[in-house]
Amino acid sequence: MNIFYGTGVAMVTPFQADGQVDYDGLSNLIEHLIDGGVEYLVSLGTTGESATLSEAERKQVWAFTAEAVNKRVGLVAGIGGNNTHEVVEQIKSFNTAGYDAILSSSPHYNKPTQEGIYQHYKAIAQNTQLPVILYNVPSRTGSTVSAATTVRLANDFKNIIGIKEASGNFDLFNQLMRDKPEGFLFISGDDPVTLPMMALGAVGVISVIGNALPRQLSDMVRLLLNNDYKGAHKAQYSLIEFTRLMFTDGSPAGVKTALKELGICGDTVRLPLVQVGSATAEAIIKETKSLA
């Protein structure tokens, strides 16, 4: 089975109290996720607070992660931005050793047209030998990658292999599943709707909540891949409150609170993000204890 079938986790980047990258915490997290049965990891996606890391820090985190994972599970690097030339230069200088693909979000802030989005991803695809997974997340980028643009990219570039979809737009999902080429991967990027997305044909999820609860989530996703919806419904319902709390005061602050409770790493985030409020933290700790 394709390594991107199942559960991927968009890993947080643990920080020490002074804001420096916590490599012990990152090592703990990697082992926690692999032990939890996930199929692959994403290093320095949005959840990894990549926007607040320097270029040198990103390269260190990628290298450390590849060495720690040691090909035990699939590994994806998050490389994106709103300056196409800069993104391409990052990709050219990226050490691909140990990595299976690149995940790249649609450009934020600029609000490009669909043609601009197409040309952005064309430049990325033409400058890497790694498979590329598109990432559509309008709530963060301010623009949507249309189903037609995704299908056009999938047909034009063999190394564009799938899309992480976090638009929440089921009309778009229907069009994409109808028109995409065979083998192009439709992946949930939105924990609360992974189950209905997989019912439409998504092959899995790139998850936030999986940082804390990899076993519970990956078990649910495998039930869905095996068409056991009755079993998956039970698992989904047990995770609803936890999932809601993860995003109440922002991500990844929520899941870092859960990880601190689990003893994996601390809950420090870098500005402009801040830790969750005390009431939310109390609720997260309670729910984590009930599920872990």
Summarize, please:
This protein is of the alpha/beta class.
Order of adjacent strands in the largest pleated sheet: 7-6-5-4-3-2-1-8
Mind describing the biggest β-sheet? 8 strands, parallel
Q: Write down the overall mean pLDDT.
A: 97
Number of strands: 8
Radius of gyration: 18 Å
Could you tell me how far the N terminus lies from the C terminus, measured between alpha carbons in angstroms?
Answer: 29 Å
Derived from helix and strand composition plus strand pairing, the structural class reads: alpha/beta
Low-confidence stretches: none
Name of the top-level CATH class: Alpha Beta
Instruction: Please tally the helical runs, counting DSSP H or I stretches of 4 or more residues.
Output: 12
Instruction: Encode the helix/strand succession as letters.
Output: EHEHEHEHEHHEHEHEHHHH
Instruction: Tally the structural domains.
Output: 1
